[in-house]
Design brief:
The two termini are 29 Å apart. A 9-stranded mixed β-sheet has the order 3-2-1-4-5-6-7-8-9, with helices on both faces. The radius of gyration is 17 Å and the shape is globular. 52% of the residues are buried. It has a domain of 178 residues: Ribokinase (UDP-N-acetylmuramoyl-L-alanine:D-glutamate ligase, 3-Layer(aba) Sandwich). The protein is α/β, with parallel strands linked by helices. The protein is 37% helix and 21% strand.
């Protein structure tokens, strides 16, 4: 029998549009040649314009979903998205502690593209105290980086990254979509400061699930054995191509075209 592809387990909320959330993770991971596993952390009612509501899954069911599948299948990386509640975030931290050494990519989705909150203050505190110490790469946009660092809205992003690595995560990849300029600048930080900077042409329009795509692609690249620098560059390139191939199925944002090769 052929050998199995690398396996990535995604913890995330379900998105009925398939643009973001768990569905985005599964599409991205599969398109990059890995096998996706999934733990549903919350249910959402949303469309391509925004989120209408969120229902967190009971933390006991998160624990049960994860432990049952992890007792059967070895994973090469974890990807974390919307977790639904502070208790769920604590539960995921417990699971990660049982699998030290496995890369963890955390996409700290704090709000929808339209601005609806997806994490309250208690959840944010759990992210800082319990999940960052287990995180290999944190992938916030600039707004999320400042909020997670408890910094001012105009705080220097290098200072924010320094604070976030001080809290325990190994690396921080800050994306610059929300910063001004004709290019989007993404910067990878380590404990001692910037490690690499990548610039991408700013695309017209807005996209539902771009952050999910980047984080899931990065988890897939790490699962495939790429070193950090190569994984970060490859994940960005894949995400940019997906956005370039984006399409519109609703009345809101475009969805990334994650299977751009087949299309």
């Amino acid at each position: 029998m052929p050998s199995s592809p690398p396996v990535v387990l995604a913890f995330a909320a379900s998105d009925p549009t398939g643009g973001a959330g768990l569905q985005a993770d599964l599409l991205t991971i599969a398109s990059l040649g890995c096998h996706p596993l999934s733990v549903v952390t919350a249910l959402t009612a949303q469309d391509t314009r925004g989120v209408d509501g969120l229902l967190a899954v009971d933390p006991e069911w998160i624990l049960r979903q994860a432990r049952v599948v992890l007792e059967d299948i070895a994973v090469a990386a974890f990807k974390l998205g919307v977790l639904g509640s502070a208790r769920n975030a604590e539960t995921v931290a417990t699971i990660l502690a049982e699998h030290p050494g496995t890369p963890v990519v955390l996409d700290p989705v704090l709000a929808s593209g339209r601005g609806e909150p997806l994490a309250d203050q208690e959840t944010l505190q759990v992210l800082r105290a319990s999940l960052l110490p287990h995180t290999t790469v944190l992938t916030p946009n600039s707004l999320e980086a400042r909020r997670l660092a408890l910094a001012a809205p105009d705080a220097d992003l290098a200072d924010c990254a320094r604070e976030l690595t001080r809290l325990g995560c190994k690396y921080v990849l800050v994306t610059g979509t929300h910063e001004p300029g004709s290019q989007v600048t993404n910067t990878l930080y380590g404990p001692r400061g910037p490690l690499r900077e990548d610039r991408w042409p700013r695309l017209a329009g807005t996209y539902h699930g771009s952050g999910c795509t980047l984080a899931a692609a990065l988890a897939a690249m790490l699962a495939k054995g790429l070193d950090l620098a190569a994984a970060v560059q490859s994940a960005q390139a894949y995400t940019h191509r997906s956005l370039e191939s984006g399409f519109k199925v609703g009345r809101g944002q475009h969805l990334p075209g994650r299977f751009f090769i087949s299309r």
